[in-house]
Write a structure and sequence with these properties.
Elements (H helix, E strand, L loop, with lengths): L3 E3 L2 E3 L5 H14 L3 H7 E8 L2 E8 L2 H6 L2 E7 L2 E8 L5 E5 L11 H7 L2
Antiparallel strand pairs: 1-2, 3-4, 4-5, 5-6, 6-7
């Protein structure tokens, strides 16, 4: 959720149906729910070895204006890049790097910062 804080107080903005549609599509992408995605999108894919790309094109004009085309790419079972493209000038790109090894903490840092 989102909360707007101002000198006059806090308020929750009205729900944005565009954000809801994009969030639902991304949730389905991250869960690899292809049957659910196919209802709202035409799916196109390409695979080369373990690398793959999946493009989702909205079936309706309203969805094309709201969400745009979604392109997801990755390797094996890992998603590495998500692109939401509404136009040539409106693009959101999400890059997902492989996990890094955990940081080493000293005993004093653990005591000071972790409870």
């Amino acid at each position: 959720g989102m909360l707007i804080r101002a000198p006059a107080g806090e308020k929750i903005p009205p729900a944005d149906p565009r954000a809801t549609a994009a969030n639902e599509a991304l949730r389905r992408v991250l869960r690899f729910e292809f049957a659910a995605l196919e209802r709202d999108f035409e799916l196109y894919g390409r695979r080369a070895g373990t690398e793959w790309t999946l493009s989702l094109v909205p079936r309706t004009e309203a969805q094309r204006r709201t969400i745009g085309r979604i392109t997801v790419s990755g390797e094996a079972a890992a998603i590495r890049r998500i692109e939401l493209r509404r136009s040539a000038k409106q693009v959101i790109e999400i890059l997902i790097a492989p996990p890094r090894p955990p940081a080493a903490f000293t005993a004093e840092e653990i005591k000071a910062y972790f409870r």
